[in-house]
Amino acid sequence: MTFWLGLRLSLRGGREAAVRLALVAAAVAMGVTVLLSTVALFNAFRVTAERPCWECTTGSAPAGWALGATQGAALWNHRQDSYAGRPIERLDVAVLDPAAPAPAVPGVPALPAAGRFYVSPALAELMAAVPREQLADRFPGARAGLVGRAALSGPDDLVAVVGRTPGELAGMAGTVAVDTVATFPAAQDPAADDLTALYEHGFGIAAIGLIVPLLVLVGTATRLAAARREARFAAVRLAGATARQINAIASADAALGALLGALAGVALFQAVRPALAGVAITGSRFFPDVVTPTAPQYAIVIAGVPLAAAAAAVWSLRRVRITPLGAARRTRASAPGWWRVLPLLAGLGLFAGPAFAGGGREPDPLLADAGLALIMVGLMVAGPWLTMLAARLAARLTRGAATLLAARRLAAEPKAAFRSVNGIVLAVFIGTAVAGIVPAVVSGQLAAGDGTLNEVMRVPFGYADAAPGRPLPPGEADELLAEVGAHPGVTVLPIYRRTTTQDPPAAPLPCDPGPGCRLDFMLGHVVSCDDLARFPALGACAPGVRAVTADFNRLLTSDNLLSVDRNLPIVDPTSPSAPAGTGTGKDVGSGSGNDADSGKAGAAASDGLSLAAVLIRADDPAVRERIRTSLTPYVARSGSAETPLTFAEVARFREVLLDQVERVALAIVALTLLVAGCGLLVAVAGGVVERRQPFTLLRLSGTPTRTLSLVVVLETAVPVLLAALVAAAAGFGVAGPVIDQLAIKSAPAALPGAGYLLTVGGGLLAALLIVLAGLPLLRRVTAPDNARFE
Amino acid sequence: MTIDALPAPGPLLRADSISRSYGRTPALREASLSVTAGEILAIMGPSGSGKSTLLHCLAGIFTPDTGQVWFDGHRLDTLGDAGRSRLRRTAFGFVFQFGQLVPELTAADNVALPLLLGRTGRRHAYQRARGWLERLELDGLGERRTGELSGGQAQRVAIARALVTRPKVIFADEPTGALDSLAGEKVMDLLVGLARQEGVTVIVVTHDSRVAACADREVIVRDGKVTDPYADEYAGEAVR
C-alpha cells in the first residue's frame, strides 16, 4: 500500500511532481544511454577480440618439407604488408594435396588454389580504387572471392589470402607447414601485443570514470526538490506513517522515475546505436551488429538503475530525520578546511618531482600512478574549499545583489555546490592531460632527424642475428638495388652486414650505447660514406673515409621515432672506418638512383657482404607504392617480419595509436561532460524548486527576475569555471613532465587540438547553456500569483 | 500495547511534571495536565509560552526530557517510534494551522491516507473518506488537490482526515490561525460538533478567545508551566 502511495505521489501529484518525474526520467535516460553505449562498445571490442585468430597459426619447422602430396596439410606464409600506412594482413598458402581436405581459414570457403586469391571487401574496394601496380600486382592471379567476416575484426580490415604452388612458397623464408588453423582468440596469443589488455584497461577506466558522474546524476535526480519532499513526508508521518513506510514511499517515487528513465534510455540508445557503430573508437569500425549490449546487460540496467535510485533515495533520507513536524538534518555541515588542498599539491609534487625527475632517467610508473591518483582525488577534495574561497572573495569584492546572494550561498554550502561539478573536474583534467600530451608527442615523432627522414622507407632484411629473416645475398642485393634505382627520383642507402661480428662482452658496458658510445661489438653494419652523405640526418664520416662501420639496429627496428632521434647521428667523424676484410677496404656500394655508382654495390657484394637493409627516399607517393610492390618478393624471400615502411608511416602507426588513446579519452570526456551537464541541470532545477518560497518572496519584494536568474547562473557557473580552471591547470601540470620525457626536444611546441577545444570547451559551454535551460522554470515557479505557502 | 483498551476511569491523557528544552532554552517546566475522555480542552497562552510544545508532548510527537505522559493507561513517552506512529494513525488525529496535508494528493487521498497506511483496503478507505468529506460539506471536492482548495476547505479536509480513523483524541494547533473569522468559526463549529457526536476528545491550542470559548475547559500555559484548576484533583491517583 505504501508503495502504491509512492507511485500515487509521483504519477498524480500535479504539475510539480510531473516536472520532477520528467526531469528525473530525462536525467536517468541520458545516463543510461551513455552507459549502454559504453557497454556496447566494450562488447564489440570483446567480441572482436574473441574472433578466432587464424593469423596466430603456427606450423612445423621448415626443415624436411615434403613438397609432394601430404594429406591434410598446407604450406603457410603469413606476414604484414602495408598500403599508404594501412596495414594489410597477407597470407600466402599452398595446398599440398588438392584431393584431400586442407586446413580451413575462417571466412574463406576453401584455401585458394595457386593463382587464385581471396581479399576482404575493404581491400577489394581499395584495389579497385588505386592503380594496379601500386597494390593489385602484389597479389598474383585472379580473385576467387571475398574473405568473410569470420576472418575479420571489422569492415575496414585489409586481408588477402593468396594461393601459391608449394614450390613458390618453399622459396619464401618464413614458410611453415600447417595441418590445422589456429582458432583461439587473438587475445590468447602469447606472441600478440598488449593492445587488447590496453583497451580492456581503457574501457574499464572509462566505465569507472563514467559510473561516478552517473551515480552523482542519479543521486542528484532522486534528491531533486528534496526539502519539499521531506516536508511532504513529514505530513505523511503526521498521518501515522512509520519511518519504514516513508522509506518505502521515497523508494517507490525514486524507482519509478529511474525505471521510466531506464526504459527511455534503452529507447534512446536504439536511436543512437547506428551512429555508434560508425564510430571508429579503436581506430577501425566494428561490425554494426556486435555494437550492442547483451540481453542480461539490458536486464541489469533496467532492473539495476531503479534499484540504485531507490537505494539512493533511502540513503539520502538517512541524513535527515523526518518527524511529523518536519525534517531536520542529522548532521551540521562544517566549512571545508585548507587541508583539502594538500592531496592535490602532494600529487602534483609527486608527479613533477620524483616520478618524472628528468635528467634522462626513466619515469617511475608506480610513483606516476600514485601521483595521478592523488591529483584526481585531490581535485575532488579541494574543490569545495576552493569554491568557498572564491565565493568569499566574490562576496567581498562585488556589490551587486545577485553576486552577493550567489556568493553567500556558495560560501555557506560549498560542498553541495561542488557535488554536481565533480564529474566535470575529472573530465577536464583527463581531457587536458591527454590532449596536452598526445599532440606534443605526435608532432615530436615527425620531427625525428629534423623531419628529413619522414619520406625515407626502411626495408630491413636480416639486419641482425636475432632478427627474423636473412640478409640478401650479393646476387639478390644487386638485383634489388638495380630495380629500385630504376625508379625516378629515388635515393638509396644500402646497409650491409659485416661478415664477422663480435659477441657482447661479459663485463658491464663501460658506457650507455648511443651517440658518443659506440662499442665495437655493436658495429655490425657497414655503409658507404658517399651514400650516407645523401642522408645527412644520419650523420657524416670523417673526411677521406670511404666507408664506416656503425650500428643501424635502432634505426631499423624501433617503432618509436623518439628512440630513433635520440640515437642520431648514427655516424660521426669518430666512427671507425670499415676495416679491411669486411669487404669495405675498397668501395662499398652506392645505390644512388640509376647512376654509374650502382656498380659499386656489386663490388661490395662481390667482397662477400650481404645486404642487411635499404633506406629508400622517394618523395612521390605513387613511386613509393610501386617500389613497395616490387619489394614484395624480396621481403618474402628474406623471411623478414618487418614491413617496408617510411619513417612517417612508422610514426603514423604510433600516431594512430596515440590518436586512438586521445579519441577514446575525449569520447569519455564528452560523455562525462554530457552526464555532468545533465546533473547540473537537475541540480539547478532542484535548487530552484527547493527555494521557491524565498525566491518568490524576493520577487514579491521587488527583486527583478533577471537578478534571480543571475543568482542561479552564478551559483552554477562559478564552481564549474573554477573547477575547470583548476582541473585544466592540473592537466597541463601533468602533461608537462610527460612531454618533457616523451617528446623530441627539437619538435615544435604542439598545443591541444581542435578535438580538445571542441570536447572540453564545447562541453563546458554546453554545460553552462544547459543551466540556462533551467531559468524558465525559475520564472514560472516564482511567479507572484503562485505565492501560496502551505 | 493494545490501543483499543477499555476506557480508563481516570483521565484519558495525562502529563506528569513534564519538562522539555530546546538546547538551553526551556519550553516546558514541570508541566502537568489531565484530560478526560470526550472533553474539549483549550490550551491558551502567549506566543512562546510552550503551549505547542505541550501539545506535541501529549501527542507523542515530542518526548519530554523529564516527566511522564500517559494515554489510556499506558506510558506514551517511553513508546518507540513505530508505536507512536501507530497511535497517530489509529488513536490520534491532527488539525494544524498548515502543513498537515500533502498538496500532491487530492482531498480524498489525504483523508484516506491514515487508513491506507494502516492497511485498510483501498476501496473501503476511499468509501469512508468520501463519507467524511460529505459530513464536512466538501462533497464534490474530493478529487481536487489540497493546493487547489481555499484555506477553510483545506482545514475541513484536515478535520475529515483527523476523524476518519475514529480517533480518541484530536490535537489541534491554531486550527483557525490562517483563516478569516467566518471561515474560522465554521471550522471550529464543525470540529467541535463532530467531536461531540463521535465522543472524541479535542485538545486545541489557540490564542483566540473565540476558539477557546468552544471548549469545555481551558488551561493557560505561561513560561512553560500549566495553570490547570483540575490538575490537583488527579494528583497522586494511580493511572491504570
Automatic annotation (TrEMBL), chain A:
> What's this protein's name?
FtsX-like permease family protein
Q: Which residues form the ABC3 transporter permease C-terminal domain?
A: 667-780
- Topology with respect to the bilayer: Multi-pass membrane protein
Q: Which domain of life is it from?
A: Bacteria
Q: Which residues fall in a compositionally biased region of kind Gly residues?
A: 582-592
Major localization listed first in the record, in broad terms = membrane
Keyword annotations of the record: Cell membrane, Membrane, Transmembrane, Transmembrane helix
Regions that span the bilayer: 21-42, 203-226, 246-269, 298-317, 338-358, 370-395, 416-438, 664-689, 710-734, 754-778
Q: Where in the cell is it found?
A: Cell membrane
GO cellular component annotations, sorted alphabetically? plasma membrane
Is-annotated flag, keyword Transmembrane helix? Answer: yes
Region spans: Disordered: 572-601
TrEMBL record, chain B:
Show where the ABC transporter domain sits: 13-238
Q: Which GO terms describe its cellular component?
A: membrane protein complex; plasma membrane
MF terms in GO = ATP binding; ATP hydrolysis activity; transmembrane transporter activity
Q: Does the keyword ATP-binding apply?
A: yes
Q: Superkingdom of this entry's organism?
A: Bacteria
InterPro entries from the entry?
AAA+_ATPase, ABC_transporter-like_ATP-bd, ABC_transporter-like_CS, ABC_transpr_LolD-like, MacB-like_ATP-bd, P-loop_NTPase
Q: SMART domains in the record, alphabetically? A: AAA
Q: What is this protein called?
A: Putative ABC transport system ATP-binding protein
Task: State the species of origin.
Answer: Nonomuraea wenchangensis
